[in-house]
Amino acid sequence: MSGCRPANTPIDPNVKFKNKEGRLVDKGQYQRLVGKLIFLSHTRPDIAFAVSLVSQFMHSPIKEHEEAVFRILRYLKSSPGKGLFFKKSEQRGIEAYTDADWAGSITNRRSTSGYCTFFWGNLVTWQSKKQSVVARSSAEAEFRSMAQGICEMMWLKRIMEELRKPITSPMKLYCDSKTAISIAHNPVQHDRTKHIEIDRHFIKEKIEEGQVCMPFVPSEQQIADILTKGLSKTSFDFLVSKLGMIDIYAPT
Asked: Which InterPro entries match (predicted)?
């Protein structure tokens, strides 16, 4: 790969993988490459979605999947000095951005959840993962992602309490779905929302306790979008900067 052409993004925004017949590739090599990329994604949130996607085909990878892995490597070649930059901030609190790509998988129509949490203005945890069941509505997919984001924030809050640095202000959960926010604040249980009852009650409980508030964020500023789908170069670069990533080799 030393002589390969660099890529601007880790994955083609129009790519849609599915289990189909094709020329099988060396499964052992594919699994080793993806395993190393999974390890790297623990410090590179910009490749988290792409790595999560290619890892779903470890059992029978075909040429199309291998080419997607090579594209990730080509992207990494274009940005060897890119990483998270932890800056001093006056901000004191925990924030999370959550999003879901409803029925994004054409293989089984499961949604992809993504969240990223910020502590004192710096990114500390993130996840991109396909949901375990099919969501019947976009609100259901969003609620599952929101519940995961709140659990992550609660975990960070408990860590700070153990360190005797309690977080007193409400934690902010940014969501770009007005429908999901409205259902979370609605005290009336409707039959149409019973299939998401557990997540809805969990989120509603944290809101009523004053531990979490849910500001609305426009879709174009939803940072977790980078963890749920492939994006164009313009959108991708914008959200990468919002994650707090910089390239130490980039000209200033």
From this structure: DNA/RNA_pol_sf
